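hiii so um. not sure if this is the right channel but i have a protein structure encoded as tokens and i wanna go backwards to a sequence. like what aa goes where. can anyone help
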């Protein structure tokens, strides 16, 4: 769902359905996986998820210098994280180095810019989306993107991420250079970008 409004708090769906997942149940699914889940399967989990603030409050932790990555669950096949962003914080332009990634916007308004490789090796933007609470966006293996909290000062953003398999390297790109950097987990675990 692409939206242009600026709702800042997730509003639980009014009508409960039998296939709704709690965050704890989703963490159990991640912990008990027997194979790497597909992009569409992760999107289905996220579309069934009811992210109640009392369930995710302990992972809703921000950092002042960079966006914060808070691990919820990890197995050999996937990981689930809550990322918390102050206004202005953003990722580098990146791909996921062989993992698929799905994002659920929990609070705030997410800006996602998609990039493509230009013939000279640089990257150039070709599309920008804005996602409101409840929005789900997925990045397949070759996709290059940047996630940003471009809301005004004081407007926080909270996102839920699932990577499959767990991220081991973040390849980062620049519109001004053809150089591709390879950030290992020890470097980006605390929050890459600014
Ligand atoms: Fe990403």
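sure thing!! here u go:
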């Amino acid at each position: 769902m692409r939206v242009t409004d600026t709702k800042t708090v997730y509003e639980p769906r009014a009508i409960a359905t039998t296939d709704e997942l709690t965050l704890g149940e989703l963490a159990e699914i991640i912990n008990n996986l027997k194979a790497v889940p597909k992009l569409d399967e992760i999107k289905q989990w996220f579309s069934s998820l009811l992210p109640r603030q009392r369930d995710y409050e302990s992972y809703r932790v921000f950092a002042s210098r960079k966006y914060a990555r808070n691990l919820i669950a990890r197995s050999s096949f996937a990981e689930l994280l809550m990322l918390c962003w102050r206004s202005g914080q953003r990722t580098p332009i990146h791909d996921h180095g062989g993992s698929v990634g799905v994002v659920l916007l929990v609070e705030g308004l997410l800006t996602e810019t998609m990039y493509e490789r230009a013939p000279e090796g640089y990257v150039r933007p070709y599309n920008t989306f804005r996602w409101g609470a409840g929005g789900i966006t997925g990045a397949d293996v070759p996709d290059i993107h940047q996630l940003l909290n471009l809301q005004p000062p004081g407007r926080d953003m909270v996102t839920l991420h699932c990577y499959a398999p767990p991220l081991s390297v973040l390849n980062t790109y620049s519109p001004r250079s053809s150089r591709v950097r390879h950030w290992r987990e020890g470097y980006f675990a605390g929050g890459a970008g600014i």
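oh and The CA atoms of residues 95 and 103 lie 14 Å apart.
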